[in-house]
Structures are given as structure tokens and as C-alpha cells.
Amino acid sequence: MRALAALLMLAAAPAAATPARVASLNLCSDELVLALAAPGQLASVSRLGADARETALAGRARGLSINRGRISDVVALRPDLVITMRADPATLALARRLGFNLLSLPEPQTLADVKANIARVAAVLGRQQAGAALIARITAVEASPPPARAALLVSGGGNTLSADGLSARWLRLAGLAQQPLAAGQVNLERLLLEPPAVLLISQYHAREASGPQAWLAHPALARLPASTRRLHTDGRPWTCGGPAMVDEVTRLRGLVR
């Protein structure tokens, strides 16, 4: 609510000069600007932000210049605003030296942080109404969390997530409570000994032939009890845990019900 109130105050304030050539250097900032920017306002996003394997918003990046996440990649574009997340000291120093207006966003740890980042980007882009609408969607999902079922989200290699991190908070809004089984990684033996009520399998890079994906195809997983319900999730939104999570949470909520 604080983020939304701040955004509404910014909307009522006199607008600063609206940037016309915006470059984003990071997948998570890419998703924010792709969701919020006006048509023609973006000049460049990172190669991940333009890759449909990494984000469902990649289609909106069509026709934009692609960068590799470095300030030097966008110098020729002469952007009037560069946005990234967790900029390293070298990036900050180079941006100052070149006279670039750089916005470095903090990595969100809570849903309130996600909304605060949306508000900040929307304000700097002059897109306060779009930001308020996106924040309102998150707030609506937060307002009516369904009862939680014990679950375990796993991706390739048995990688899983903390039971109290940002991803787990999004998962809870879908009606699933991440088990504190093995934050970081779970092995097959532990999974068979302590099967969850719901096994949520990430489909991130599902078509790739790799060791992590082979783990998800292991025959042992077929020996989970019939009482364990298997669901699949689009792994892409979980990378950043940003506004792209709203649609996935809503979809999962329907499946869980």
C-alpha cells in the first residue's frame, strides 16, 4: 500500500522530463520496462530480455537494440536513461564518467519491494498510471490468498527455493506453501522419503538436453506416491519474481483449486 500511495503522489506531482531513449541492462529491469514503457520509449534491452526462453515479455522487445548488460554496449544509442538492477561499482563509475542518468534498482526481497520497484520505474518513465494498474493487480492477488497446501517447487537438478524468500511468498499466493525440505537443492532420496502433497515442477529450459533436465526425467520421480499431485509451472517469471508473476500465480491458483 505504501508503494501505491507513493505512486499516486508522484502521479499528481509535476512531471520531470520524460526519457525518450531508455536502455535496460538486466533481465529483471528489462521485464519492468517492457511492462511499463510507452511505445517507442525503449531503445535497448539485454539479450536475456529479448529471449523468449528467459521471459514471456520477449515479444515486446522485437526491433530493439540488444545489449550484453554493459554500459559500453549502449553508448552509441545515446540513451537519456539507463536502468539496471544491482549495478556493480564499475558500471556506476562508468555511467558517471559518461554522464549517463543511471537508475540502479535494489533486488526485491518482498512483495512490497516488487511494488516499490514498479512505482519507481513507472515514475521515472512518466508512466504512473501504468504502474498504478500493475501494482493494483498485485494488491488484488494479495488480498485473497487461498488456503495453503504443502508443496515443493523444484527445477532442473533438484534446485528448489527458500521457504521464506520472495518466490515462496508468490507461491503462497497461489495456495501453495513451500516446504522447508532442503532450501537450495533437494536429492531424489529425500524427495521419496518425504514426498510433498504437491510437487511443482519448473519448466524453465525444459526442452534443453542437460544434466539438470535429466534429473527431472529420472525414473525415481515416477515412484512418488499417487497422493503427491504433480503440477507444472512456467519457470521464467520465477527468475526475477517481478510483475510477470501475477499471471502465473493466477494460473496456478486455478489449478490448485
Question: How does this structure look, described?
Answer:
The chain is α/β, with parallel strands linked by helices and 257 residues long. Helix content is 37%, strand content 15%. It has 9 helices and 9 strands. The strands form 2 sheets. The chain has a 5-stranded parallel β-sheet with strand order 3-2-1-4-5, sandwiched between helices. The protein has a 4-stranded parallel β-sheet with strand order 7-6-8-9. α1 packs parallel to α4 (111-125), α1 (2-12) runs antiparallel to α5 and α4 runs antiparallel to α5. It is elongated and about 60 Å long. It starts with a helix and ends with a helix. The model is unreliable at 3-15 (pLDDT under 50).
- Strand adjacency order, main sheet: 3-2-1-4-5
Largest sheet properties = 5 strands, parallel
Termini gap: 27 Å
Helix content: 25-40%
Structural class: alpha/beta
Count the E strands. Answer: 9
Radius of gyration: 20 Å
What is the N-to-C succession of helices and strands?
Answer: HEHEEEHEHHEHEHEHEH
**How many alpha or pi helices?**
9
Shape: elongated
> Strand-residue fraction?
15-25%
Average pLDDT over all residues: 88
